[in-house]
Amino acid sequence: MRQLSILVILVILNISAGFAAPAKIKTLRISSTNENTRLVFDVSAIPEHNVFQLKNPDRLVIDFSNAYLEKSLSQPATSHPLLMGLRTAHRNKNDLRVVIDLQKSIAPKSFILQANKKYGPRIVIDLPIQHNKYVRKTTRFKKNKPLKITNRPAKPFIVAVDAGHGGKDSGARGKHGTLEKKVVFQIATKLASLINKQPGMKAIMVRKGDYYVSLRERMKIARRADADLFVSIHADAFKNSKVTGASVFTLSRRGATSEAARWLAKHENAADLIGGVSLDDKDDILASVLLDLSQTASQDISQLVAKEVLKNFGHIGDLHSHKVQKAGFMVLKSPDIPSILVETAFISNPKEERRLKSRKYQLKMAQAIKKGIMAYAEKHSLALNGSAVVTGASGHKISKGETLLGIALQYGVTLDQLKQANTISKANNIRVGQLLSIPIGI
Q1: CB burial of residue 304 (10 Å; 0-12, 13-18, 19+)
Q2: Per-residue pLDDT, 383
Q3: Domain range for 93
Q4: Using only C-alpha atoms, what is the Rg of the chain?
């Protein structure tokens, strides 16, 4: 009987261990010295993790077991000498994978730091760097020493603006004869104009006139332009003319799964799909993992952008749904480009049909979409502006169009750290030409 009791206790303990609370990956901080680049993951508890490299192209992979992201991780600066980009994906519903694209192969070293008075537990990864010309020290500016300013042009954030339908495909028709293809093209044109006025952003029109473009060709146009985001604009219709409101859609998981299967079956344009990693020479299992990683990250971003756009739609009119909708629209199925589909209004409703024809309302819709994209960029680590970097001294000179948050993300520090280092009370209390001190360290 005693042996049975001990066995039961051991089983219970084993089950309890299997249901341990997942670790929360809170933030990623990036700093550089003349010896290395340091990645610091702030975590709620130290999870089991594995750090390794992949070649062709060079990537650093960190697998966390039983862990999840509290929020999106900060992207490295666009001109970082070693780090090119970062993406994340959940695996097996419980595990988290972080992939960092590298300029070259490195030999990572990782270690753990336990909580102290200032920080919680941390996982630290050191990446050796040679001849890092963007090293920053914590010394003060020297008043008598002239600062050398070098411009660091970054790749613009490219938005593919897709006006739905076109040519022989007129889309929905309103009660008073308004054609969907016409009004959505007008909204798309206004959106592209607004985006092109924003420093660090660029819009490309998927169709530039009244002609038909197949759904798959729209995806290819966006990919050829190296688009970072795909926005498809439509006007909804329903048999009940009383139905109103705007909606925002992302790809459903069912649609994603079937599209991934199609891509894998044909290996179509595989080298373009996931940042230059061809699937042609990979076995089916590895190819599936690579494509799933790309598509999961793409869908996560799509959902975040869609939420911001929907929130801004709520400021200018009715919403058909207060939640982001999911559907298997073909134009949302590009595995490598975050994509959203916007239903601006119900053209089948006479009142909304009149609104859709109004230039004023069209501009409001375009502004709401653009504001949604900008809100996502500000919250989730996208630096949308070119930068001017101070060399020969510690600091950054603010250029026109830059934000304090964008500068903080560029240097891998938090907004609060940057504000404290420069005694700034509010993020908007900055001016063009102002010199900022850049704090570094764990």
Answers
A1: buried
A2: 45
A3: 20-128
A4: 25
For residue 206, what pLDDT is reported?
A: 94
Is residue 331 domain-resident? yes
Long-range residue pairs from 271-277, CB within 8 A, at least 24 positions apart, any chain: 272/223, 272/336, 273/335, 273/336, 274/335, 274/336, 275/57, 275/101, 275/336, 276/57, 277/56, 277/57
**Amino acid identity at 15:** I
Domain total of the chain: 3
DSSP string, 51-85: EEEETTTTEEEEEESSEEESSPPPPPPTT-SSEEE
Task: Tell me what pLDDT residue 67 has.
Answer: 92
Q: Judge contact between 272 and 347, C-beta under 8 A.
A: no
Over the chain (442 residues), the average pLDDT of each successive run of 10 is 53 52 91 80 92 86 91 83 87 86 87 86 83 38 38 67 90 90 96 90 93 85 87 86 86 52 41 40 45 55 87 86 73 69 89 94 95 78 41 60 68 68 69 74 42
SS3 of residue 33 by DSSP = coil
Q: Looking at the structure, do residues 368 and 389 belong to the same domain, yes or no?
A: no
- Render 100-146 in DSSP notation, one character per residue: EEESS----EEEEE---SS---EEEEEEE-SS-TT----PPPPTTSP
Cα 278–Cα 283–Cα 287 angle in degrees, nearest 5: 50
Which residue is listed with tokens 């024809």?
357
Q: What is the largest CA-CA distance in the chain?
A: 85
Q: Using CA of residue 234, residue 235, residue 236, residue 238, what is the dihedral sign?
A: negative
Residue 246 β-bridge partners: 319
Assess whether 363 and 409 both reside in one domain. Answer: no
**Domain CATH for 429:** 3.10.350.10
The rounded distance, in Å, linking the Cα atoms of 372 and 5 is 59
Let me know whether 181 and 270 are in one domain: yes
Q: Is 274 helix (H, G, I), strand (E, B) or coil?
A: coil
115: which 2 tokens?
A: 């909580």
